[in-house]
Structures are given as structure tokens and as C-alpha cells.
Amino acid sequence: MQTQPDLIAEARRQAEICNACRYCEGYCSVFPALHAERAFSDGDITQLANLCHNCRGCYYACQYTAPHEFDLNLPRALAEVRQDSWKALAWPRGFAALFDRAGVAIAAGLVLGFAVLFALAQAVRPTGGEGFYAYMSHGLMVAIFTPAFLLPLAALAVSLRGYWRTVEGGALRLSDIAAACRSAGRMKNLDGGHGDGCNFEDEDRFTHARRHFHQATLYGFLLCFASTSSGTILHYGFGLEAPYAWYSLPKLLGVPGGILLCLGTGGLAWLKTKADPDLGARAAWGGEMAFVLLLFAVGASGLILYAATGLAAVGWLLPLHLGTVLTLFLLTPYSKMAHGFYRMAALTRDAARKREAAA
User: Are 81 and 49 in contact (CB under 8 A)?
Assistant: First the structure.
């Protein structure tokens, strides 16, 4: 297995050739950032790797891929650096590498294990309570999920601080963060630079499918998070306790969010089976697929649980859903879920570069 210095050295070699060629200048944000440099530090390569969205258009357009002696495969080189950077910066270290090797097994084992524990917790169910709280008390859910949500965020914050130092990011500006949010919201770097989309799954087929599935996943997740947040505000701010009616804010946000999450992750998993694994980090394929399937399970189990409200099936559906959500939270700093945070940091750093260049 290649070490991190080896991966960075190979990515640097390819970046230097790309910098001399400049054929792919308009493809995505990677190439303007690449062409702005004359030499590439380790931090520069790490920044380029996390700025890359692995659309693969540059590979299919390149005249220096194998069997040419230059043997360029920039998407794979950056993907391997990107994946390795997450593992190197993860805190505590070690968990991310383990998830790469056996992501599906780890996710499935944790979901089932947590589901069993939640099912056993129903033995001490409250004597009162409506809806889901008839099976598990609100206090128990809060006691479990509050640290399970905050501790991974703290781990991510430590990792992102390390990333920001690695790429030599300066003081954060709201204008740069806003520019990064606009780019991420539009999935600008997945339009191929020419507006026809990317050819992630097929050399000759340009499509916006990957962009749209990413948007469905992003906005579906944000709607689900907003649903949970609105329920928390209603509970603690206004004394309005669950269960909520179908026309309430938590339901109006959560149901569409769950549907979008399932459509987006299902589509991304399908595209992943069609794409060439040699143009990404092959060793991380299982972990990436596990993450996508885990997100799908969160959305699907939530929708099924809502549809089963009032039925006896809630008794086993609720532990299964809570198990998937808890697994997602705990694995966030070590699974591909972290890529969203690193990507935002890379886009923010790139927005600062553009601002500085224009000054």
C-alpha cells in the first residue's frame, strides 16, 4: 500500500504535467486553482484533492492517459490523496482506515447492534406517552442522541482545524463561506464546466444525473435535519410535544426530506455500480458504498416508521430506525459523510484564493 508521501508525490507529478498542458482549464474549480501555482506543496495537493468532485471529465479528455508514458489518471491520484487526507486528519486516528476496509460490515453490525439495544430498552418503556414515546421515553432518546451528535461534531472540528492548517488557510471571512455555500448548493463543479454535465459513469455520455442525485441527497438530508430541529424548538420552546400532525412543520419538512434522501442515495449507489472503479480510490469503494446505503437506510426507515404509525410494527421499526440514525452520527467523522465538511472547507479556501487574486 502506498504511503501518504508517495500518494502526494504521484499527484504532484501529474499536477505538474497538467499545469504545463492546460487543456482542461474550464472543467472545474480544480484547474484554475492548479494553474494559479507554479510549484505544489503538500498542502496545495491536499487542497486540490478535496476540491476535486471526481467527475472524471479531465481523464476522458486527456491525451496523456495510458498507454502514454505519462500515464495520467488525475481523478484517481486526487481521490487517493483525498481519502488518505481524511484518514490522516481524522481524530481519533485509526477509525477511518478501519471503515475503509470493512465499511458495509461495520455499518450493518452497528445498526443491528444498536437496534437490539434499543429494542431491549423498550422493556423499561414509560407507563404513559403518545406515539413513539409510548415505546421509548423522550428523556432516554435525548440522553443517547445528544452526545452521539455533539461528540462526532467535536471530532470533525478538530479534523477540519488540521485541514485548514495543512492548506494554509487564513482568517475565515463570511463572504468566502457564502461563496462556498452557493457553489455547493448548485453543485457547480458537477456541470462539467460546459453546462452539459459530467461523464462520471460513461466516457461518451454527458449527463446531469450525478449532480441531481447529489442535490437530492444534500437537500433531503438538510430537510430531515430541519425537521428534527423544528421538533426540538416546538418541544422546548413552545411546549408542544410529539406526536405531531401531518400538517405540522416537522412532518412537512421530514417527509419530503426522507423521499429526497432515498431518491438521491439510491441514484448515487446505482451510478457508483456503473462507473469505472479505477478512476477513484478503489480501496475505499466499499466504505463509500456503505455510507450511501446507510444514508438510504436512514431515510427509508424513517418513512416506513411514519407510515406504520399506530401499528404494532412500530415496536420493532423504531429501534431499527434509531439504530441507523445513531450509527450515521457516530460514523460521521470516519465515513464519507466527512467529505461534505472537507469539501466545504476546500470551497471556502478556493473562494479566498479567488478573492485574493482579484484584489
Answer: yes
What's the confidence (pLDDT) of residue 334?
A: 87
d(CA 160, CA 180): 15
Residue 175 lies in a domain: yes
Question: Could you count the other beta carbons within 10 Å of the beta carbon of residue 154?
Answer: 12
126 vs 320, residue with greater confidence:
320
Residues in the chain: 359
Task: Give domain status of residue 83, yes or no.
Answer: no
- The answer to whether residue 51 is domain-embedded is no
**How far apart are the C-alpha atoms of 235 and 219, rounded to whole Å?**
24
Record the pTM.
0.91
> How many structural domains does the chain have?
1
H and E: helices and strands count for the chain: 14, 0
Amino acid at position 204, single letter:
D
Are 340 and 214 in contact, with CB atoms under 8 Å apart?
no
Percent of the chain with pLDDT over 90: 66
Domain limits for position 335: 91-358
HSE on the CB side for 54, CA within 13 Å?
25
Distance CA(41)–CA(343), nearest Å, equals 19
CB environment 17-33: b (16+ within 10 A), e (fewer): ebbeeeebeebbbbbbb
Integer Rg of the chain from CA: 22
How far is 282 from 285, CA to CA, in rounded Å?
5
What are φ and ψ of residue 207, in 5° steps? -155, 155
Residue 74 lies in a domain: no
